[in-house]
Amino acid sequence: MTKQERIENINRLSGTDVKKCMKCGKCSGRCPAFKDMDIKPHQFVSMLGKGKIDELLECKAIWNCLSCMACVERCPRGVAPAAVVEAVRETVVRMQGANGIKAEDIPPIVDELIPQQLLVSAYRKYNK
Q1: What are the pLDDT digits (tens) for 4-25?
Q2: What's the rounded Cα separation, in Å, for the pair 3 and 123?
Q3: Residue 11, class by beta-carbon neighbours within 10 Å (0-12 exposed, 13-18 middle, 19+ buried)?
Q4: Is the pLDDT of residue 47 over 90?
Q5: DSSP alpha helix (H) spans, 15-127
């Protein structure tokens, strides 16, 4: 996959228009994982817009993001930095070949405290 194809794929997966970002930084100001992120939420959006995909694919922030969507709630323009982070994370996982979960991998007896909806959503998410 070429660099441009990866950029287009991440834009498609995130479903957000990075051109809407006005770089106000409100998303980063609300982020509870801000201190642990080497690339901040507003920088994710900006870097994707500039095509700096290699830095995003190698950063540690994709694993530190809590996916709490606080950045999405705070954005005055409707940009979703968390969706961009999730799309980059998913791209990295797919590049590593670690994507996918089989029904057989789920134990037949699951802890009673785990909601069934969690299993179904995980199965759907990791079988795209």
Answers
A1: 999 999 999 999 899 999 999 9
A2: 28
A3: middle
A4: yes
A5: 26-30, 41-50, 53-58, 61-64, 70-74, 81-95, 116-125
